[in-house]
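If you are new to this repository, start here. Below is one unmodified record pulled from the training split, so you can see the exact layout before writing a loader.
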Amino acid sequence: MIYIHVPYCKQRCLYCAFYSVATRSSIQPYVDALCNEIALRKNYLKHSQIRTIYFGGGTPSLLTAAQIMQVKQTIGRYFDISNLEEVTLEANPEQLTDKYLSELKKTDFINRLSIGVQSFNDADLKLLNRWHTGVQAESVVKKAKEYGFENISIDLIYALPNCGVDGWKNNLQKVEELGVSHLSCYSLTVEEGTMLDTLINKGKLPQVDEEMSIKHYELLVQWAKDNGYIHYEVSNLCKPNCEAKHNSRYWNSTPYLGVGAAAHSYDGFSRQWNIDNVDRYIHDLQHDIVPCEREELEERDTYNEYLMTALRTLNGLDKDVLETKYPSLWKDTEILLQKYVDQGLLQKTNSGYGPTSKGYLFVDAIATDLMI
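And here is the target side for that same chain:
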């Protein structure tokens, strides 16, 4: 699988801590650099057959259809993409015009859209520093379906200031009405250095209401059950057989190639991450240099990462995998797991241990406790 990072945005959102730049002047040189990195790293993955590709950001929908095709053609030159299952483009509603949707469809490449709605309430969107309106977001989802994009995911944020129980219910009602097949929901989180962090520290916004966050989460869990959505990962829900294939492979530790400024890669034995500076990234790739750092992973590292990612999913930990790959480490961990089963936070599954609905709220803490 391949991840393409596009770190360009019109403006930074209030809560965003991902690397991005508020300019578009260097997009074409950046795409050229991306393509050169793909060529230089053609041997990074052991197997050249690629099943999923993900354009993330930033705002990947700032790329033109021609630039997306340039990336596709480069990937196809060095990897086998004859059996692609899923190609996702993250997109903001304001970019998904009729013209752009039509051009995307004609590429016969992008087959999944992940739309950054965040809320259907205009007051929430203004607070978050988003460009679109709630009505525009609804319209875009409907238009995308009209252009033949059936595999659509939307993002929502809960526990927003002034978004009470009724506000969150209204957002979920919109999702139900639109009939999207996949939903990613995140509690508002304060990341250091973001505009949100600054405003809270200055007393201009309240701290995130943890009680409201839990109420919103509980409403989400019940809504998913009532509407036939599978809560298959802490923050992700979908209709049957509509899981995000690309992201699901992150959670089961599948190796992947990440290209672009600030992109990360994993080959099963090491981590690699590119410099988080667009200008430096472009400059170095123009000289056939991939500006990155690399870390070799010890058995303990991969074991702990597996705990952290697998426990976030409905399937949870696979006992066979752990016994086979980490026999000495697994013995002590299995004893500790029973404590969380007794507390109703984990449950035994056919393959191992997975979180309960309540346990989803505590998986990071559980994983940290289990780490070696």
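Two things worth knowing about this chain: The first strand starts at residue 2 and ends at 6. The mean pLDDT is 91.
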